[in-house]
Design goal:
alpha/beta; Glycerol-3-phosphate (1)-acyltransferase; 7 strands; 234 residues; seven-stranded mixed beta sheet
Length: 234
């Protein structure tokens, strides 16, 4: 039954996603700031259609200026919950190839989302530098440091790429613990369990001391984010 619900949900929500993306593109021709409204509407629509409730705590700890949000990743509904209910607009970091998808990718580009080139080392490094500059310039982003969704509900080892970017950008990192999304739509599954809830717990921002070597800063940041995220999980 969960699989049937999931397939029915996708058959409706995917077309709506492309429709909203198209309208969002048009809205940016008037004012790019409209894009954030459509992104939040999209996230809340997806949550509402699945009969999910979302609660957020810790928002009062968010610092002024751009931030990098890092959270666990257990379900596709993590994206909807963060997009729709996080207290401030967030952009996403995605592989460059996604930006070539008609309508959807074009919308991401118009929305100021950040493309990363995962090609050879030189292109990847240049892409990372450009992303860091965009974040310094005022774009708040979210990164899932596990790199993919967990398949068993347990936190996966963190990958270093996001922490390298965070050190390069030099902005506060805000850990977030997402609880409940795995029960709704487990990673690797098309099933959908209705009537559940998702909790977003925002932890205190992490700012590293100046003067640290890059490798040491990456390692310390990874440890601190991991401790914060796991501290908010069951």
């Amino acid at each position: 039954m969960a699989l049937i619900r999931g397939l029915l949900y996708m058959s409706v929500f995917f077309p709506l996603t492309f429709l909203i993306a198209a309208v969002a593109i048009l809205s940016t021709l008037i004012d790019r700031r409209y894009y954030a409204w459509f992104a939040r509407f999209w996230g809340r629509l997806g949550i509402t259609m699945a009969g999910i409730s979302v609660t957020v705590s810790g928002g009062e700890q968010l610092p002024d200026g751009p931030i990098i949000v890092m959270s666990n990743h257990a379900s596709n509904f993590d994206i909807l919950a963060m997009q729709g209910y996080f207290p401030r607009p967030l952009s996403w970091i995605a592989k460059k190839e996604l930006f070539s998808i008609p309508v959807f990718g074009w919308s991401m580009r118009r929305g100021g989302y950040i493309a990363l080139d995962r090609g050879d080392g030189r292109k990847a490094l240049k892409s990372m530098d450009e992303a860091a500059a965009q974040i310094k310039g005022g774009t708040s982003v979210i990164i899932f440091p596990e790199g993919t969704r967990t398949r068993d509900g347990q936190l996966l080892p963190f990958k270093r790429g996001g922490f390298l970017l965070a050190v390069k950008a030099g902005v506060p990192v805000v850990p977030v613990s997402i609880v409940g999304s795995f029960a709704i739509n487990p990673g690797g599954s098309l099933g959908l369990n209705l009537g559940r809830s998702v909790q977003l717990t925002i932890h205190a921002p992490i700012t590293l001391p100046a003067g640290m070597k890059r490798a040491e800063a990456e390692e310390l940041l990874m440890q601190q984010v991991h401790t914060a995220v796991t501290g908010g999980l069951p």
